[in-house]
């Protein structure tokens, strides 16, 4: 498959906003793609080189991309920077300068998908001393062979800003359409994706062995998309919804999906990043399990068994920062409270009812620091409420009520799990928003160079980020320092290209970090753009940071639609 054809399809997709149209265009492209190229094409469309858990990051900063663009076009760096300041998108800048470039390439051989993919992979894998110069060299070579349109997408890609607006659901639809002309295989493809989190791999199997998709099984070292919980606000509605259920404590720790095959062990976070190196003591404990192959999930947190004291996610993380991994293991021992099992010695357990899965777990755990999550079967709202109060007394954040008959709902927020959480002051609900900018400290906070965050939620219809809160409180001094340090590294000259905004922070940042925000209520405000109507958008009143959600990615932030539902619900009360 020729990459120029792919770039043309990407251009076409950018002009469309409807999902159906995008599906059609992509399905046409997939029809023309061979089984050997399909995985690479899917990754490129997703804006990645491999599934996130492989941890392959292109790691190229704007300045390096600008150097490559200057080299390939023959224009001075300053001119490229000025153009970029106006366009706000280096992809558009490279496209324009390439179309007027002073130096014409001597070798402008057409590139195929495989070549572009491999070149990008080479850039990503170049590390060590002098690697940035080498990366610039490889990017220059790649751009030298590109048409202006190809260059637009390549530059956006290396900066991690491809954002075609094509979500995974559209790709899944398009795969089904490409083979059958309809969505009939969509559900099977989606399940396969949810249990391996690698869309390129699913597409490859689908193209090579179509029959295998319906029997697609969980496998060690291909992490499943985590099951998610619905939220209800009282024990009564929970019992009404699922009747007798298992009630477990909701630990505020670090969710780990643990995979083992023989002596090989790997842990994945909720975002499916590899976390194995962070928890050496857990590796040791897992190695002692008798099972040859196993995948299970638990919440890792520092726990003092003698005092029966649980520590929060924040404290668990700080434990490592402050004491170093080794010392931390001794002083504040970590425990994993295991709450689900997904695979055992060749058997995929995701379709097995939860109660059965739990029975299997009870044969394996506890083992050393691998504890079982404590649970109680409850029939009435009163019993559930007692468990809830008990959890708060233990300093935890609430409970999880689990449907005894439900399968493991990989990648889905379902009523198989229902959470009941404590409220924060007036705030019953919290939202997860993406940080798009920050303010300098003023007055008493001047020394921190940090005075708050500008945060946005996602508008699915418009495929835009829209601001919803300027968060001025909720930070400890330590947090102010660490957040400022973190954001300093991802400052950008211009706002994120996908952001609609009216308020301008002192600094814009790459939309990378998620923050959980509590608030008193949702109001309409002329300064925010969330779901804007008649010049006023939805906005959080008295927003305060609860915590950074390093376990969540931008794909999981609250949507504008959800904010509107919260607003309407609040007005009903
Ligand atoms: P929240 O924002 O409420 O922390 P979330 O959006 O991160 O939740 P949810 O699906 O709403 O994710 O809640 C499930 C989370 O609760 C899981 O990701 C897991 O980390 C955590 N958890 C704690 N204890 C349990 C338990 N006993 N069973 C399942 N999940 C648990």
Give your account of this protein's structure.
The chain has 573 residues and is α+β, with helices and mostly antiparallel strands. The chain has three domains: 48-159, DNA ligase i, domain 1, CATH 1.10.3260; 228-425, DNA ligase/mRNA capping enzyme (D-amino Acid Aminotransferase, Chain A, domain 1, 2-Layer Sandwich), CATH 3.30.470.30; 429-572, OB fold (Dihydrolipoamide Acetyltransferase, E2P) (Beta Barrel), CATH 2.40.50. Helices cover 39% and strands 23% of the residues. It is built from 19 helices and 23 strands. Strands 13, 14, 15, 16, 17, 18, 19 and 23 form an eight-stranded mixed β-sheet that branches. Strand 7 (334-344) and strand 8 (347-348) form a beta hairpin. The protein is globular, with a radius of gyration of 25 Å. It starts with a helix and ends with a helix. Adenosine-5'-triphosphate is lined by residues 226, 228-229, 248, 250-251, 255, 270, 299, 339, 373, 400, 419, 421.
Short description:
The protein has 573 residues and is of the alpha+beta class. It has 19 helices and 23 strands.
Strand content of the residues, in percent? 15-25%
Chain-averaged pLDDT: 91
- Count of the separate structural domains: 3
CATH C-level name of the largest domain: Alpha Beta
* Termini separation: 57 Å
Bound ligands, named by name, code or SMILES = adenosine-5'-triphosphate
CATH topology term of the largest domain: D-amino Acid Aminotransferase, Chain A, domain 1
Shape: globular
> Which blocks of ≥5 consecutive residues have pLDDT under 50?
none
Radius of gyration: 25 Å
Largest sheet: 8 strands, mixed
- Number of separate helices: 19
* Helix content percent band: 25-40%
Give the CATH superfamily of the largest domain: DNA ligase/mRNA capping enzyme
Structural class: alpha+beta
Count of distinct strands: 23
CATH architecture of the largest domain: 2-Layer Sandwich
């Amino acid at each position: 498959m020729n990459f120029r054809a792919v770039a043309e399809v990407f251009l076409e997709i950018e002009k469309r906003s409807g999902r159906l149209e995008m599906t059609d265009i992509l399905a046409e492209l997939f029809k023309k793609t061979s089984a050997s190229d399909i995985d690479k094409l899917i990754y490129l469309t997703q804006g990645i080189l491999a599934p996130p858990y492989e941890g392959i990051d292109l790691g190229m900063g704007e300045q390096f991309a600008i150097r490559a663009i200057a080299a390939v076009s023959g224009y001075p760096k300053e001119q490229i920077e000025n153009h970029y300041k106006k366009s706000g998108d280096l992809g558009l800048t490279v496209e324009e300068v390439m179309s007027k470039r002073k130096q014409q390439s001597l070798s402008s051989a057409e590139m195929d998908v495989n070549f572009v993919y491999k070149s990008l992979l080479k850039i990503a894998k170049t590390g060590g001393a002098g690697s940035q110069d080498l990366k610039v060299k490889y990017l220059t070579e790649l751009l030298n062979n590109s048409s202006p349109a190809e260059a637009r997408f390549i530059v956006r890609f290396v900066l991690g800003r491809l954002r075609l607006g094509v979500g995974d659901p559209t790709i899944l639809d398009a795969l089904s359409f490409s083979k059958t002309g309809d969505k009939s295989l969509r559900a099977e493809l989606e399940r396969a994706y949810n249990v391996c989190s690698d869309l390129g791999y699913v597409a490859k199997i689908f193209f090579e062995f179509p029959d295998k998709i319906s029997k697609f099984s969980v496998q060690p070292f291909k992490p499943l998309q985590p099951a998610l919980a619905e939220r209800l606000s009282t024990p009564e509605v929970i019992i009404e919804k699922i009747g007798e259920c298992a009630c477990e404590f909701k630990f505020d720790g670090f969710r780990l999906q643990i995979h083992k095959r023989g002596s090989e062990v790997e842990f994945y976070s909720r975002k499916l990043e590899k976390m194995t190196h962070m928890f050496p003591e857990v590796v040791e404990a897992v190695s002692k399990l008798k099972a040859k192959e196993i995948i299970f999930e638990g919440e890792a947190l520092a726990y003092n068994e003698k005092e029966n004291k649980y520590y929060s996610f924040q404290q668990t993380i700080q434990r490592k920062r402050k004491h170093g991994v080794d010392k931390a293991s001794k002083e504040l021992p970590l425990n994993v409270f295991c709450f689900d099992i997904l695979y055992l010695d060749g058997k995929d357990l995701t379709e097995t009812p939860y109660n059965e899965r739990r029975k299997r777990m009870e044969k394996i755990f506890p083992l050393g620091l691998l504890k079982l999550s404590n649970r109680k079967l409850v029939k009435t709202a009163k019993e559930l409420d007692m468990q809830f109060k008990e959890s708060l007394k233990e300093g935890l954040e609430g409970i999880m009520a689990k449907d005894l008959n439900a399968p493991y709902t990989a990648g889905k927020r379902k009523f198989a799990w229902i959470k009941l959480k404590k409220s924060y002051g007036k705030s019953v609900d919290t939202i997860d928003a993406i940080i798009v900018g920050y303010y300098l400290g003023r007055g008493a906070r001047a020394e921190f160079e940090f005075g708050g965050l500008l945060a946005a939620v996602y508008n699915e219809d418009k495929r835009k980020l829209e601001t919803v809160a300027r968060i001025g409180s909720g930070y400890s001094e330590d947090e102010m320092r660490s957040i400022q340090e973190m954001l300093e590294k991802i400052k950008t000259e211009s706002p994120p290209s996908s952001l609609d905004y009216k308020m301008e922070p002192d600094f814009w940042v790459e939309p990378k970090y998620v923050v959980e925000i509590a608030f008193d209520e949702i109001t309409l405000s002329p300064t925010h753009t969330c779901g804007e109507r008649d010049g006023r958008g939805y906005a959080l009143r008295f927003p305060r940071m609860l915590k950074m959600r390093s376990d969540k990615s931008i794909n999981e932030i609250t949507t504008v639609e959800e904010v509107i539902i919260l607003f309407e619900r609040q007005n009903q009360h």
